[in-house]
Write a structure and sequence with these properties.
Mean pLDDT: 76
Radius of gyration: 34 Å
Helix content: 40-55%
Shape: elongated
Oligomer: single chain
Number of strands: 7
Number of helices: 8
């Protein structure tokens, strides 16, 4: 006796499959549309999912068309999703450089490492005058605020970008010892060609100080600026024995000893 095939179509089902007009799968159309709307990361992620769902639901339904649409949507979704991932990675790298470059510069300035400080800058002049300006700026920062601890981007402050391809990056800087609220600092930065490709470098640092006056580095008129910096140091909160410059102290000790030695001999 012949055994009945359980997978065979019942009476009338074969005729129904033949008579149904071709239909384009809605999931295939949705997959293609989501793949084309590449301006939204969510739609590019949905495109491959919808395309795969089309093939699953259309299995065994020969009247459902749209395989090409589904494949196109899946490919577009995968390509644009990869693009969004690359953009997210690049943005994360830029944000990291935005904070690391001024952080490393201020760490070097706080430690008195002029060489490391200069590597974070675009086109700083060489020579003793430039070194003197960096040293004076470092003394002023340490005397006013103490030792650098860390910084973070100030999301509440917006500054207009420069027309030269540079941008102002607002930060809030923490110093030790803490003498009040975080110090508002603006870094003018941009990309410069180096041996490792394009890297973000600093073009200007501004410490906004309503009480003692702003500190700007580099300053086009260093002579006048140094006088203002020194005046700020003398009137600052650490003027009576706070963060004094170690190099200046070492230079003064031999002179002081030579002046005191005759009096000590007479005693």
């Amino acid at each position: 006796m012949d055994q009945e095939n359980p997978y065979s179509m019942g009476p009338g089902e074969a005729d129904l499959a033949v008579e149904l007009p071709p239909q384009t799968g809605k999931l295939a159309v949705a997959s293609l549309v989501c793949g084309l709307v590449f301006c939204c990361p969510l739609t590019t992620l949905l495109a491959p999912i919808l395309g795969l769902a089309h093939f699953i639901t259309a299995r065994g339904k020969p009247w459902v068309r749209g395989a090409g649409l589904a494949v196109g949507g899946m490919l577009l979704g995968l390509v644009f999703s990869a693009g969004w991932i690359f953009i997210a990675w690049g943005t994360a790298q830029v944000i990291t450089q935005m904070t690391n470059v001024p952080r490393e510069a201020l760490m070097a300035l706080s430690a008195g490492d002029l060489g490391a400080f200069k590597t974070q800058w675009i086109g700083l002049d060489e020579g003793p005058e430039a070194a003197a300006e960096i040293a004076a700026f470092g003394r002023a920062v340490r005397a006013r605020y103490g030792m650098f601890v860390d910084l973070r981007l100030d999301d509440e402050t917006e500054r207009a970008p420069e027309a030269t391809g540079l941008a102002y990056l607002p930060f809030l800087v923490v110093f030790r010892p803490e003498s009040g609220p975080d110090v508002e600092v603006s870094a003018l930065a941009g990309y410069a060609p180096t041996g490792n490709g394009l890297e973000m470098k600093l073009a200007e640092l501004t410490f906004f100080d309503a009480e003692l006056g702003d500190l700007v580095f580099p300053d086009s008129d260093f002579g006048a600026a140094e006088g203002a910096w020194i005046e700020g140091i003398d009137n600052g909160p650490d003027a009576d024995g706070g963060a004094a410059d170690d190099a200046d102290a070492d230079e003064l000790e031999p002179e002081q000893e030579s002046q005191d030695s005759p009096a000590a001999d007479r005693g």
